[in-house]
Amino acid sequence: MVAVMDSDTTGKLAFKEFNSELPGAFEAAGFPLNEHLYNMIIRCYLEEGGNMDFDNFISCLVRVDAMFRAFKSLDKDGTGQIQVNIQEWLQLTMYS
């Protein structure tokens, strides 16, 4: 996926590429996210030079996938909402 999004063939995604292509890539992977979440991902996974390498991109996808799976396992009735206590929240956020 990085190679497809890497328009300048550097092997890394520059901020411009990352910012414009990320929503479609995550949507295609089955992770519909809002703009606020994309901005959080950008802040978390971009390197100082404004690039994201393949390893960081995969780490990002793995984390998003783990969080989606954790949420879906708690969303028993499929409403898109869950209620968790502090212990459950900490367990979710510490180990995903």
From TrEMBL:
Native source organism of the sequence: Camelus dromedarius (Dromedary)
Organism domain of life: Eukaryota
GO molecular function, one term: calcium ion binding
SUPFAM superfamilies linked to this entry: EF-hand
Keyword field: Calcium, Cytoplasm, Membrane, Metal-binding, Repeat
Keyword Aminoacyl-tRNA synthetase carried by entry: no
Name this protein carries in UniProt: Calpain small subunit 1
Compartments, as annotated in UniProt: Cytoplasm; Endomembrane system
Ranges in a coiled coil: none
GO cellular component: calpain complex; endomembrane system
The keyword Calcium appears for this protein: yes
Residue intervals of the EF-hand domain: 62-96
